[in-house]
């Protein structure tokens, strides 16, 4: 095996398509197909099952690809250790973040980190869900990622950043309760059931932690919302609520810093079951470089 073989074959597996992988690798599809066939002739078995509509791994191919990822990860860890010999003067970090969190978390953190460590290259990978980020980290695609605890998979270490409270978002002209900071869980749920029973809701899908918390809340209070639609972009629900078109939900750390003509009202759900911890996570068994440790420290300082 050489690095090109490892890169090409794992890219095809991740993309699930030779044509998509060829575009990503900037080579022609016929050239990549010929490369795969050559590899399969050398190793003596087929890696990919190409006899169905969707590309999948053979049983032997799954073992081959897993080994490819392990070798690539060992190479990455070697590079990190070599970079660490120079202190934090050079290196590369791949940071994962969900697309709905990136505009809130990244600008200030990246600015401060690059100012302090200009020799470190940062690559950012966005995913639609925290579940997808966990899978990417386990496969070695990202070094560390922003998420909320608890995580779906085991084998991760986490560094705490902040509490994140599920918050109801309602239109500015809606008759919201007074003294929002003093509202109990029962106060908020009574308000939802009595005052928002005819209000449309924009929700997050259950593939997101926010969506799962929202549905958990509705099940707990036995409330059936009028669902307008679902979206991965929390800002959509917030902007629509500011126009009086719906109610929605967000996390307390994800309030847009925008100048609305009339800002929506944010009402925290005051209950431990609807409060999560915003953390940076990284695989427990992987080498954490000095550059990655420095990135975690800069991120923590932003929440102090």
What is the secondary structure topology, with strand pairs?
Layout: H1 3-15, H2 18-25, H3 29-43, E1 48-49, E2 56-57, H4 59-84, E3 91-98, H5 102-116, E4 120-127, H6 130-138, E5 144-149, E6 156-170, H7 185-195, E7 200-203, H8 209-221, E8 226-230, H9 234-242, E9 248-251, E10 265-268, E11 275-283, H10 290-301
Parallel strand pairs: 3-4, 3-5, 7-8
Antiparallel strand pairs: 1-2, 5-11, 6-9, 6-10, 6-11
How would you sum up this structure, described in words?
The protein has helices at residues 3-15, 18-25, 29-43, 59-84, 102-116, 130-138, 185-195, 209-221, 234-242, 290-301, and strands at residues 48-49, 56-57, 91-98, 120-127, 144-149, 156-170, 200-203, 226-230, 248-251, 265-268, 275-283. With 304 residues, the protein is α/β, with parallel strands linked by helices. The strands form 3 sheets. Strands 3, 4, 5, 6, 9, 10 and 11 form a 7-stranded mixed beta sheet that branches. The protein has a two-stranded antiparallel sheet with strand order 1-2. Strands 7-8 form a two-stranded parallel sheet. It is globular, with a radius of gyration of 23 Å. The chain starts with a helix and ends with a helix.
Outline of the structure:
The protein has 304 residues and is α/β, with parallel strands linked by helices. The protein is 43% helix and 22% strand. α1 crosses α2 (18-25), α1 packs across α4 (59-84) and α2 packs across α3.
């Amino acid at each position: 095996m050489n690095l090109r073989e490892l890169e090409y074959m794992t890219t095809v597996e991740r993309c699930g398509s030779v044509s998509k992988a060829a575009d990503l690798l900037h080579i022609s599809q016929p050239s990549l197909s010929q490369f795969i066939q050559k590899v399969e002739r050398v190793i003596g078995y087929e890696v990919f099952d190409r006899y169905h509509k969707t590309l999948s791994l053979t049983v032997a191919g799954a073992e081959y690809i897993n080994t490819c990822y392990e070798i690539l990860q060992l190479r990455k860890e070697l590079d990190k250790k070599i970079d660490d010999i120079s202190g934090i003067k050079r290196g590369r970090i791949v940071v994962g973040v969900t697309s709905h969190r990136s505009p809130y978390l990244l600008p200030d953190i990246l600015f401060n980190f690059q100012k302090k460590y200009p020799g470190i290259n940062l690559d950012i990978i966005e995913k639609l869900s925290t579940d997808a980020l966990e899978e990417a980290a386990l496969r070695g695609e990202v070094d560390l990622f922003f998420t909320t605890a608890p995580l779906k998979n085991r084998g991760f270490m986490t560094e705490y950043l902040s509490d994140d409270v599920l918050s109801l978002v309602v239109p500015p002209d809606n008759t919201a309760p007074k003294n929002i900071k003093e509202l109990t869980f029962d106060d908020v749920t009574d308000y939802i059931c009595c005052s928002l029973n005819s209000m449309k809701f924009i929700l997050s899908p259950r593939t997101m932690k926010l969506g799962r918390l929202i549905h958990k809340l509705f099940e707990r209070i036995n409330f059936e919302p009028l669902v307008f639609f679902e979206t991965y972009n929390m800002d959509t629900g917030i902007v629509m609520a500011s126009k009086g078109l719906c109610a929605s939900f967000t996390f307390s750390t994800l309030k847009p810093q925008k100048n609305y003509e009339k800002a929506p009202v944010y009402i925290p759900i005051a209950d431990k079951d609807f409060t999560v911890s915003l953390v940076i996570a990284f695989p427990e068994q992987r080498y954490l470089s000095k550059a990655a440790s420095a990135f975690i420290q800069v991120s923590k300082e932003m929440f102090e």
